[in-house]
Specification:
This protein is an alpha/beta fold. The chain is built from 7 helices and 11 strands.
């Protein structure tokens, strides 16, 4: 590789063989030296879970070459990042990209997303990070349509960096390339899942539950990720791992805590 070529860590939550990560690896290999550390099986909706009560395994699944080295990991997406940084990489990567997720991670979904939690973990480690998701849950989704946009966004981050503690949550609408209107920097929409549990019985008569429900967008703003996706734009939401609600601190400090 050329001198000053960026070192890029690639991970996801759909598993190392998912079409989304294969598309992401292809794009990143055009930009820098790629090390892949991804789950050996789907780990969707794992959030920021880490493995503490069982063993973790790494399996090297490709030979070293000038561009790509790959590992599968028995743990969660966050485990993958932790192991990459502490055990595999000889230096801190210049960038971590996670995805491309099969399905949207807009609005409240960022909280549950293994894809975004891996990117957030990289951000905690001081690594510029991006989570990419496509609003198409089909295993055979068309990732070719968005490759050029993934490349453009990645190169912008490589060139300009990100503010300290900020990670990008990038979501793509399910559209053909020519129908995508552009890229919008957005805020996270106020939306949530209205959940219900479908109660069923096993053949042995034991109760079990199946999570169901519907996604409800309560936000009518035209500056949100949901609006952007519904109107043909790629949404880019800057997120952070500092969960402090700074706007509430003054109000809370006026309470009579010590009287």
């Amino acid at each position: 590789m050329k001198k000053n070529t960026p070192l890029i860590l690639v991970t996801n939550d759909d598993g190392v063989q998912a079409p989304g990560i294969r598309a992401l690896i292809a794009v990143m290999s055009e930009i820098g030296e790629v090390v892949v550390v991804a789950p050996d099986k789907p780990q969707s909706a794992m959030g920021h879970a880490i493995t503490i009560n069982s063993t973790l395994y790494l399996n090297k699944i490709s030979k070293d070459n000038d561009i790509i080295t790959e590992y599968s990991c028995s743990g969660t997406p966050v485990d993958c990042v932790k192991l990459a940084v502490n055990e595999i990489l000889k230096r801190k990567p210049d960038l971590c990209v996670s995805g491309i997720n099969h399905g949207s991670n807009s609005s409240i979904n960022v909280i549950y997303s293994g894809t975004m939690s891996a990117a957030v973990e990289a951000g905690i480690e001081g690594i510029p990070a991006i989570g990419f998701s496509l609003s198409d849950y089909d295993w055979n989704a068309d990732f070719e349509t968005i490759k050029s946009f993934v490349r453009k966004i990645t190169l912008e981050v490589v060139e300009k960096g990100l503010p300290e503690g900020v990670i990008l949550n990038v979501n793509f609408p399910k559209l053909k390339k020519e129908n995508i209107k552009g890229i919008k920097v957005c805020r996270q929409a106020k939306a949530m899942w209205m959940e219900k549990f479908d109660k069923r019985k096993t053949p042995q008569g034991k109760d079990y539950y199946w999570l169901a429900g519907e996604f409800v967008n309560q936000d009518k703003g035209e500056d949100t990720d949901e609006w952007a996706l519904d109107n043909g734009y790629i949404s880019v939401v800057p997120v952070q791992f500092d969960l402090t609600a700074y706007h509430s601190m003054q109000q809370l400090n006026n309470w009579k805590w010590n009287e």
